[in-house]
Amino acid sequence: MNQSEFAALHNVSRKTVTKWKERGWLVFDGSALDVEASNALIAKYRRDGSDVVTPAGEGNKPLLKTAAVTSALKRVTIQPGETVEQATTRILIATGADMNLDEAKRVKENYLALREQLEYDRTARLVVAVEDVCRAVGDEYAKVRSRLLAIPSEHAPRISRLKTAQEVQDALHGIIVDALEELTRDGDGLNKR
């Protein structure tokens, strides 16, 4: 059987059969095409051997509508201690990765482009790791807590000498304002990192 007859057998264009040949999916016995061996390879690489690249008589397929690689409901999260590659493997196993070769290539190219974009964003400091933000916020809260807990022991002797509630209130207000301004000045370095 020749390539034209094989295309007619599978109801695909000759261009599709040529692509199969380039990919190594066709087996030849001399100049003749080995139909059984070729069908076995096509069944191996194309789901049920029936997913056609170009239907016969229709020319090339129209371009598929592009969609986001990851829908909003399936956002990718990298778990603590997990690398990007480990997260990718986990997600592929969970989703079953049920796609043909062309779809897999498209997904791979999208993945590589998104990974490069993420690396660029990290280098440009447009994104930061959640763990780093949590650590920085926790450190700042610890400073606030320590500073506020130190107020009574530092200022109790002075406040105890005050005679009216208004004097105590004014003194406490001034002490709290000073503490918050001190903490704000300490936080200025955080914004410059």
Outline of the structure:
The protein is 63% helix and 2% strand. With 193 residues, the chain is an all-alpha fold.
Walk me through this protein's architecture.
- The chain has 193 residues and is an all-alpha fold.
- The chain folds into three domains: 47 residues, no CATH class; 52 residues, no CATH class; 63 residues, no CATH class.
- A two-stranded antiparallel sheet has the order 1-2.
- A hairpin with a 2-residue loop joins strand 1 and strand 2.
- It is rod-shaped, with a radius of gyration of 33 Å.
- About 5% of the residues have low confidence.
User: Portion of residues in helices?
Assistant: 55-70%
The Cα radius of gyration reads 33 Å
Counting DSSP E segments of at least 2 residues, the number of strands comes to 2
Secondary-structure-based class equals mainly alpha
In spatial order, strands of the major sheet run 1-2
N-C termini distance: 69 Å
Global shape: rod-shaped
H and E order = HHEEHHHHH
- Quote the average pLDDT: 78
Any low-confidence stretches, pLDDT <50, length ≥5?
Answer: 48-56
Number of helices: 7
Number of domains: 3
| Beta-strand share of residues | under 5%
**How would you characterize the largest beta sheet?**
2 strands, antiparallel
List keywords for this structure.
single chain; 193 residues; mainly alpha; two-stranded antiparallel ribbon; 7 helices; rod-shaped
List the helices and strands and how they pair.
Blueprint: H1 3-10, H2 14-22, E1 28-29, E2 32-33, H3 35-45, H4 84-95, H5 101-123, H6 130-160, H7 165-192
Antiparallel strand pairs: 1-2
Helix pairs in contact: 1-2, 6-7
